[in-house]
Amino acid sequence: MKFIPLDVKNYLTWYSKTLRFCLTFLVFIPAIILSGCSEKSPSSSAQNRIWIKAEPVWISPAENRAVTFSLGIPKGIKMPEEAVLDLGPLNQEKIDLLENGERESSPTEIIYRFQVEIDGRRFRLNHLDLTLKWPDGTQASILLPILVGFQWGVVFNPGQRNLPEQIGNLDDLGVNYGRFWLDWSKIQATTFRLNPATLPSLESIAGNSNLIDEYADHLTWTEFDTFVQNLIQAGVSPLPLIADATTAPLAPGTQARIAPEDEGWTGSACILGTCVDYVGIGRDAYLAQAYLHAAALARRYRDRIGIWNLENELNWAYVHTGVAGWRVGNAWSDPEFCRRLLKTLADGIKAGNPSALATMNFNIHDPAYLQKIRDWSGPLDLIGLGAYPNYLFASPIMSSLLADAVLNTKGLTDKPVLVLETGYPSGPAAKGYSENLQVQYLSKSTRFTEENGGAGYFYFHLEDPPGTPGPNDLQAVEYYWGLTYPDGTTKPAYGEFKSLIQTEETK
Q1: Residue 278: closest CA among 287, 289, 267
Q2: For residues 406 and 385, what is the distance between their CA atoms, to the nearest angstrom?
Q3: What is the DSSP pairing of strand 307-310 with strand 51-55?
Q4: Which residues pair with 456 in a beta bridge?
Q5: Residue 56, preceding bond cis, omega within 30 degrees?
Q6: CB within 8 Å of 19: residues ≥ 6 apart
Q7: Which of 87, 62, 78 is closest to 150 using CA atoms?
């Protein structure tokens, strides 16, 4: 065999090129392939399906209980590397639920459970915060509603007196919550895809995350974003009442609000001298608008709002229509439609934020209110009550009627019961009402609510509305519920309410 001299330099050059090619193929190409197949941090839409819940959701001011926190992460999305629950308001700790929780698996999701002892005798709070983090730096926050101790709130009207002054009053009183009517039409000026050819049925909307996002893009958020932020900065949690028919959006091309009546129907209704026109769009179309409204709100504010009040006294809507004149149309006298609307709104809240809690203020003056609580409250997390026992007469003070309602409702359900609105008017004096009687009602009704196991008490209203009732106005008391006069001057009941809250805090 003939020996061929080896050109060492050329050989090394060839060997180096070949080696680099092999390394590129064996290392970089598979890495590219794997990167294309690997999970990315979840989109905001996927993040919205992650939930956290507390069981029980309320710790009374007289008990020390173990609370189980459950974190649910749907399968098919990338797991976060951290899920930190801030227990700082309770014990200055932060717990990583992924690291410390017990892991369970179901066909659809992975659940982590962690238990904490909470002393309702020492603390009063209404939420905790969860922060999720993924390896690429993506973060998400979820507000976990949990009621510890007796909760205090005031109903107020953001569109009335100077808003910063009102928020200052809430801060000064020391309430946990500011409850208010969220004007549906200010966020959604007109209906969304009303044409039946483009608006899906209510059944097909359920679970359609993309449609919720599309609807949300149709809305005007700036004013409400700022309002919510200002409340939170003052240490007051927002509790909005949503989808009230009296604030419904306008039908396209009209100055009439939509109503759950047949297409072509028209009507009008008046509240305290202000009259509004309505036009029918059909019940199913109305329910679809309400569902999307609830879902979009709960999704946008999942890190800021934990409890949503769905509509207003739906069990009493037939009186709003036939007696008060606040609503118009036949749907509000149909209990089955009202039940469907309540469930539709609750479904929308859970679609937007599975961690949020839903409630409604059942008016206890409805002779069938207990039956409706039994039949309608399945989708609700908290049972709300509304009571105005002295609406028609000044005395005797009927705070015991509210106390009985709390007790009777608790006999029907193991869900927390909140008095979401009640009050006593300081006038008209000609009918025997006075500021002193208002103080007496406030003092007695708060005490009775807590003694009978209520989870919280919300007074209606922060201030009187402007205007003066006529001499024969059957709704004259509507001008006198406030803890302050229209200009913000406080009544004696304001100081009494503040004192009651401070006393509760020092127990």
Answers
A1: 267
A2: 8
A3: unpaired
A4: 151, 418
A5: yes
A6: none
A7: 62
If phi > 0 it is left, if psi is from -120 to 50 it is alpha, else beta; for residue 467 that is: left
CA distance 285 to 197: 11
Q: Are 331 and 361 spatial neighbours (Cβ–Cβ below 8 Å)?
A: no
**Residues 314, 151: contact at Cβ < 8 Å?**
no
Residue by residue, what is the 3-state secondary structure of 153-182? EEECCCCCCCHHHHHHHHHHHCCCEEEEEC
Residue with tokens 């008046």: 270
C-alpha dist (Å) from residue 461 to 178, 274, 446, 455, 484: 10, 19, 15, 19, 9
Sign of CA dihedral 261, 265, 270, 276: positive
- Residue 419 scores a pLDDT above 90: yes
User: DSSP code of 396?
Assistant: S
Which among 358, 385, 153, 328 is positioned nearest to 241, based on CA atoms? 358
Listed in order, strand segments (DSSP E) in 217-341 are 237-242, 257-259, 266-271, 274-280, 307-310
pLDDT in tens, 433-463: 999 999 999 999 999 999 999 999 999 999 9
Pairing of strands 456-460, 417-422: parallel
d(CA 293, CA 86): 30
Task: Please give the backbone phi and psi of residue 112, each rounded to the nearest 5 degrees, phi first.
Answer: -115, 130
Tokens (6 digits) for 396: 């005797």
The pLDDT of residue 38 is above 50: no
> H helices of 271-322, where?
283-300, 317-319
Tokens 């909470």 identify what position? 118
Q: How many helices (H) and strands (E) does the chain have?
A: 17, 21
Beta-bridged to residue 386, according to DSSP, are 363, 421
pTM of the model: 0.91
